[in-house]
Design brief:
With about 240 residues, this protein is α+β, with helices and mostly antiparallel strands. It folds into 2 domains: about 1-80, Alpha-Beta Plaits; about 85-239, no CATH class. Helix content is about 60%, strand content about 10%. The protein is built from 9 helices and 6 strands. The strands form 2 sheets. A 4-stranded antiparallel beta sheet has the order 2-3-1-4, covered by helices on one side. Strands 5-6 form a two-stranded antiparallel sheet. A hairpin with an 8-residue loop joins β5 (about 205) and β6. α1 runs parallel beside α6 and α7 (about 155-170) crosses α8. The protein is elongated and about 60 Å long. Mean pLDDT is about 85; it is low at about 70-85.
Amino acid sequence: MTHKYKVTGMTCTGCQAKVQSLLSAVPAVKKVSIDLEQGEATIEMDRHVSTADLQTALKAHPKYQLSETPHEPHETTGTDEAAKPWLSTYKPILLVFTYILGITLLTSHDVMQGMRHFMAAFFLTFSFFKMLDIPAFADSYSTYDILAARWRGWGFIYPFAEAALGIGYLTGLEPLVINSAAFLIMSLSIVGVLRSVWQRRAIRCACLGAVFNLPMSTITIIEDGLMIAMSAIAILTAL
């Protein structure tokens, strides 16, 4: 069953991610979609969850107030994100990849150099978007990443870790160390992504920080998987 609720007090994407995270933690809640502009939460449940229980989930943050919509709640078959055209939904990340690929092709002379340049541009670009609003990214990332969910501080460190990897690839510092770090970090990241996609959780992907409202999907799996594969190949080559 799926119901809509009014949520007041949300003023930014960080608020959106926080409310989504808190409501997603309620037992029997399967998916939570937040419409920041309309101030609405669409919640899919395995069984009925009372409004009081949902309100209790937000009690630690009193500025967020949840209430039933004026009309009687009704079941829905999807979310606004699902209704949007695929190209429109993923246009930001597709453009980013196109630019990164273009830079790589223009500056590389062989495959291994191309991989290094691609990964440098990838990590530096993605860390830039995350650093535009690190607290909002940390809130969003904690909704699905296995490490950030247990230790929120990882969400604050992650953008700087990506930046460090980007600089490492760009300057060619200690290839074995840099590639091993990238392999470990991206392998940890993909676990939460895979779990969220398999569970079909309607949550926000934090790959481009809090700037764009991208849904979690197979695009994120491909993104992380590509970095894992490239770093693994580079490690084998360096051995």
